[in-house]
Amino acid sequence: MRILLIVNPSASSVTARGRVVIAKALGADHQVRVVETTHRGHATELARQGAADGFDVVVVLGGDGTLNEAANGLAGSDTALAPLPGGSTNVFARTLGLPDDPIEATGALLDSLALDAVRRIGLGVVNGRHFLFHVGIGFDAAVVAEVERRGSLKRWANHVLFGVAAFDTWLRRYDRKRPRLSVRIGGSSSIDVGQFAVCLNTDPYSYVGTRPFTIAPEATLDRALSVVTIRSLDAVPLLRVLASALASGKHLRRSTNVIRHVDVSSLTIEGYGPVPYQVDGDYLGDVDVLEIRYADDALALVFPVTQIH
């Protein structure tokens, strides 16, 4: 099997030793070419070229942002994507059930390749860009933007940094006094109005340490998209929702502060003025309108053998 290993050398968990060990392990039974990313968007270019060159699998050692870029390069092709956790949170790899240690995950990947544990999955598409697990619009994207402004600290204090950025954004960097966006599902005439929204292709939304942050348990790779809109960022209702997302989720599912939709094929989000948005954890700027749709069977994905069915 021909494998293209894309490495983001700047990712939080990537080390020179780890890269060598992983490349040797993959190369024991497969033909492996190793390439490194050097700039934003580079993984898309490398993955697209890998598909054009006939590689069977593109393995990505990096964070969720690098993985998203590679998925955009492979969408619509026959070349499969395989994640290895190299970032600080590794949401998608962990959602698939991979170990959070990249060398352990390589062992699981080799087992999957031996059994050809590959199947096609659907992806979300937002304004032409594919996403693997979610797109966030409004408050959470503003938090991600703040985290990226302090990116030099991310390798050493990711979860603490995110918590500090979230509180700082809530306290003084985000307008909580008025609705920021509207959500229209498909061709519906009704709209949901809120402070921020998340459209999910999988759940959990993220992880806090080892604990999943679950806001849409019905979001799986076997279904279309789920949409969660938060009406208000007032402290008490927001803290109740956040606490519920880290626990049973019962309050979140019943909260009048939360609007939920499942099995969504398309939606339109309009900001009341430009709103920030992030895709798979990468802040992409402020926009007025987002068109989101579900693309069925868009990507071939290597699954852990315990997850394939």
From TrEMBL:
Keyword Cell wall biogenesis/degradation listed: no
Span of domain DAGKc: 1-130
GO terms assigned for molecular function: ATP binding; ATP-dependent diacylglycerol kinase activity
InterPro entries, alphabetized: ATP-NAD_kinase_N, Diacylglycerol_kinase_cat_dom, Lipid_Phosphate_FormReg, NAD/diacylglycerol_kinase_sf, YegS/DAGK_C
Entry keyword set: ATP-binding, Kinase, Nucleotide-binding, Transferase
A GO cellular component annotation in the UniProt record: plasma membrane
Listed PANTHER family: LIPID KINASE YEGS, SPHINGOSINE KINASE
Protein name: Unannotated protein
